[in-house]
Here is the input.
Amino acid sequence: MIDDNELKARVNELMKNLNYYLRNYNRLIAIGFRKSVLDREIQMLETEIKQLSQRI
Here is the structure.
């Protein structure tokens, strides 16, 4: 079983990743990242954050 501190740390890590993608979205696309891949990654991060937040 995962304790609350581990869940909070994971949520914080996911939030940092999500914020990075959102802040740098246009720049990442400009340097060659595909928009569909970034959109999917953002969606996956949001989904995992929601799921983990419900368990805290």
